[in-house]
Hints:
Layout: E1 2-5, E2 8-14, H1 20-31, E3 33-37, H2 56-59, E4 64-65, H3 79-95, E5 99-103, H4 107-114, E6 138-145, H5 148-164, H6 167-177, H7 197-202, H8 211-244, E7 249-253, H9 255-267, H10 272-296, E8 301-306
Parallel strand pairs: 2-5, 2-6, 3-4, 3-5, 6-7
Antiparallel strand pairs: 1-8
Helix pairs in contact: 1-10, 3-4, 5-8, 5-9, 9-10
Amino acid sequence: xxxxxxxxxxxxxxxxxxxxxxxxxxxxxxxxxxxxxxxxxxxxxxxxxxxxxxxxxxxxxxxxxxxxxxxxxxxxxxxxxxxxxxxxxxxxxxxxxxxxxxxxxxxxxxxxxxxxxxxxxxxxxxxxxxxxxxxxxxxxxxxxxxxxxxxxxxxxxxxxxxxxxxxxxxxxxxxxxxxxxxxxxxxxxxxxxxxxxxxxxxxxxxxxxxxxxxxxxxxxxxxxxxxxxxxxxxxxxxxxxxxxxxxxxxxxxxxxxxxxxxxxxxxxxxxxxxxxxxxxxxxxxxxxxxxxxxxxxxxxxxxxxxxxxxxxxxxxx
Length: 317
């Protein structure tokens, strides 16, 4: 019987749009790491603008796993499937002597991957669900937090920009080319797809742009924003529940970076250099120190016995 050492990993959490992808790349470049996506909408190939999937340029040469790998017509990835494929990705990364970084906003999948005890029937955040406090990896948890009012303003501006750079056209083409399931599943649950469903059924062509059509379009955009805001509330609530259950999740405040992004957007200026400077100082540098301390700690050992049987963008926006 051998005591089994736990692999060290970094887990980056936070609300949608808070910079998880950007920070994961920053840390990966510093620590020779590879990134595993834990955002269930980004598992799929397609709707890259709508799901805000990192481009190849934004990945800056860092290997990413479980990002844009599934056909959009494939069904929902179950928690069990994610637990298995993500664990395989972690094993492969550690075998290559690299640091695994898990980044994404699907907190139930994060729980189900990391929990020592896994029950596929248990949804950890339901009223009767249970959160497992024992973890099967030695985790350094980082929560990127942004003041709610600032994040909501930023997300609203970000969506306006996404709409101007092809999000609507991407969704319209997706609806035209793919057969919708009877009930939304998989990538069909992505925010934006359902909100534009009624509009696209009514206005399927490029017809006349009149006041009625504009109102329907604006209503769909407002619904996307409201549903995005609700998603961020739910994500933060889940992170707090994990914390309350004993997960050592350390918060890093990124509000100043987002205030700068908003200022630059409103003034019509790039602001990239200043945003990056603030981001590096207030987010990246403290996170680098956090990860350094985590990696320098003695190897943690699992309480389980091994019987041998045992998947910012460069700058915010």
